[in-house]
Amino acid sequence: MSAGDTNRIRKIVHVDMDAFYASVEQRDNPELRGRPVVVAKRSPRAVVTAASYEARPFGIHSAMPAMRAAKLCPEAVFVPPDFTRYKAVSAQIREIFHRYTPHVEPLSLDEAYLDVTEPLIASPSATDTARAIRDAIRDETGLTASAGIAPNKFLAKIASDWRKPDGQFVIKPHQVARFLTDLEVGKIHGVGRVMRAKLAEMNIATVGDLREIRPAVLVDRFGRWGQRLSELAQGIDDRPVKSHRVAAQISAEDTLSQDLLLSELAPHIQRLADKTWNNYQRKASRVARTIVLKLKTSDFQTLTRSYTPLAPPASALELADIACALRDRVERDPEERYRLVGVGLSGFVEDDSGMQQTTLF
């Protein structure tokens, strides 16, 4: 049986390293152990990449402004990120994963899905396999990991957060309905603040509440996402673990040296479009159809605008032109300023034959 075979109950493990970047820093510098560590440059333009567990009780978390983190915890130790080192440790951890199963789907440097339905070792259960993996990570890297074990990826990812740090939690097939009933709907990946508010308008606060809504009602309200919500509320997630994930997006972004108006972003968009196009030409084996413009306001609100022409962009110049034009779809105060800009390509397809050029304007 393969990892993509849906005619049996899968055993999926989601492994999530505990405060990975901060933990690597504490491991490599004993003076940082037991202290609140913030992985970020201590500068007005920086954001927090990671925070140690000692820093989190102060309200510090990733993606917050570094200067706010400094105010929340004046005694915090700031360490600039070292991604070369983090990638090396991540590669070491992935090598451990592959001793137990060939079916490994990395999500980032610090987390991955593993299908251990048929592990490469003699193991009585997926729970024991997950424990063996965590033990190997601790013994060989000096770091800790948490794990979730469940019949599918949706549940395993939720479960891995249940016993953090340095723990694991299992959801067996017969426990799925009971586990989901009282779960806050915000625990569903993709249900953020805006979606929670929309669901609250429908008196939906838990996954159990969501399960009571007819699928047709959710589809009518939210389209395909409504269908997906209905399935997840029943614990249904048929996605296999994909050992070779194809990049969903190729992009480049920069935090600007000073906040700029929307009308002032064109040179930066053009520069980032060139960088994205060069990466696309080097890395992509498929055709990208969608152009994405990403912006972050001076108060850290993230905005994205995208466009899918009938024919994909054929050059860096065309990519830049479309990305610049997407600014017209940002209906905000013209005096608002932006601290970050990004340009991306997504919507990859195997073949662009038969497509016709259209216009954004």
State the total count of DSSP E strands: 12
Name the average pLDDT. Answer: 92
CATH architecture of the largest domain: 2-Layer Sandwich
Radius of gyration: 22 Å
Please tell me the total number of domains: 4
Describe the 3D structure.
- The chain is an alpha+beta fold and 361 residues long.
- The protein folds into four domains: 12-19 and 84-176, Alpha-Beta Plaits, CATH 3.30.70.270; 27-82, 3-Layer(aba) Sandwich (MutS, DNA mismatch repair protein, domain I); 181-233, Orthogonal Bundle (DNA polymerase, domain 1), CATH 1.10.150.20; 249-349, DNA polymerase, Y-family, little finger domain (Dna Ligase, domain 1, 2-Layer Sandwich).
- 34% of the residues lie in helices and 21% in strands.
- The strands form three sheets. The chain has a five-stranded mixed beta sheet. Strands 9-12-10-11 form a four-stranded antiparallel beta sheet, with helices on one face. A three-stranded mixed beta sheet has the order 3-2-4, covered by helices on one side.
- It starts with 11 loop residues before the first strand and ends in a 12-residue tail after the last strand.
Highlighted features:
alpha+beta; Alpha-Beta Plaits; MutS, DNA mismatch repair protein, domain I; DNA polymerase, domain 1; five-stranded mixed sheet; four-stranded antiparallel sheet; 34% helix; globular
